[in-house]
Each structure stands twice: as structure tokens, then as C-alpha cells.
Amino acid sequence: MAPDEPDRSQRILLVDCDAFFVQVARLEDPDGAGKVDLLLVGGSPTGRGVVTSASYGARRFGVRSAMPTAQALRLCPDARVVGVPRGACSRKSREIKDCLETLAPVVQAASIDEFFLDLAGTELLFDESLEVTARRIRATVLEATRISVSIGGGTRRMIAKLASGRAKPGGVHIVPPGQEAEFMRGLDLAEIPGVGPALVEALRERGLVRVEEALGVQQAWLERWFGARRGRWLHRRMRGQ
User: Most buried in the list 36, 105, 124, 236, measured by CB within 10 Å?
Assistant: First the structure.
């Protein structure tokens, strides 16, 4: 196997909780936050602080996490603002991880609401496709913890991470072995983890928005534009490596 080719024996899932802080806030206050469609978690009703998470209803107004709460309320003035239930979030995260550890041999928390599962070598054990396994895991987590998750899968961690974004909210997206390059070509450069706003703008100034557009740029040019280390990193990153 060439160094840049995916290892087809790898079966990796990323379990990503859907608007995790919003879900926990609703579970903690079912008669209040639990009945509100437009919900902001983080900051204060007076507009101080920043949004930790926004409900999908609020996101339709352009609200995003890390946005100043005052700006979020200008975009979505009917939203209700509640504090972050930090203790409950920590407990629920542990509950989800405990559940996943009964379903997969290797579980690694990537953050409070994201978990990588390594399922290499489990084909014979489960006797099912990775997609069927992912859907079974999703249903089990929802039943056991009352938290909805989205699951992405593939032969690499980054592919699984990107695929989970395609699965949201509450779905499953698996990139089959050998289709990593095709999957990457369908993405915007801004979707690649680590490609921040400044790099996105620098690429846009050169007419590059989609991964497919940037794949034809030689590594030497990327290194000239962004430096040797960053150029090499980007060249590999947009190929799912």
C-alpha cells in the first residue's frame, strides 16, 4: 500500500452530538428551554457573553457558536437565552462515552461532545456493514442517553470527521473505502478542519473556494503562497490525509 493510499481495513466512526449544549439544556429544563424552538445556550439575555450553542431553529437565522450573544439576538430577537449547564453537560458526556464503550472496542473522546470509535477488525464480530453498525450505535445512544448524535465514518479520522458534518443533524454518512478523493472533491475548502477564516480568505483571493478547484494547484505553489510547512499541510489535508 502506498503511503498516501487509505488503509481499507480501517473502520473509523466519529460520533458527534447534535447541538449538544442545547440538548442538555432542554433535558435539564423540559418545561422551559425544552419547549423553546429558538434557543441560545451561553451568554445572558442582556446580550453579554458569547453563544456556546444554538438550536437548529436559531441557526436558520444565521446564529452560530462563538458569536457574541448581542449579535445573535439581533439576528434572532425572539430567541431565549439560557446559561450553559456545565455540570449536566459533563455528566451527560460521560454517560455517552460509557454507552459507546459497550458498543465499540476503542473509544476516544475528541471533545465533550465528539467521540472517535475504532472498529477495525470487527467485521466478522458484527457481521454487518459500517453504515448498519453506525445506525445501530446511533439508535442505542439515543435510547440510552436521550441525546441525538450524527455519525460519520471512513478509513481515516479526518474523513470520518468531515462525513459527520454531512450527516447532521441526526443522520449517518459513511465514505466507502476508495471513495475518499471523490468525497473530498465535493467539499468547500472552509469545511476542512484547521483551514481557518484567514486561510479561507487567502485562498478565495486566488479564486479557490472548492477543494476540487484547489486540487490542481501544485504543492510548490501552495508552499510559495503559504510557506513550506503550511503548503505541504494543505496539499495533504485537501486530499483527506
Answer: 36
128: annotated active-site residue: no
C-alpha grid cell for residue 114?
A: 465528539
Q: How many CB atoms lie within 10 A of CB 216?
A: 8
What are the pLDDT digits (tens) for 69-100? 999 999 999 999 999 889 999 999 999 999 99
Of these residues, 28, 114, 123, 223, which one is catalytic? 114
Please provide residue 151's backbone torsions phi and psi, each rounded to the nearest 5 degrees. Answer: -130, 130
Sheet holding 114-118, edge to edge: 106-111, 114-118, 12-17, 149-154, 172-174
Those residues whose C-beta lies under 8 Å from the C-beta of residue 211, and which sit 6 or more positions away, are 184, 185, 186, 187, 188, 189, 192, 238
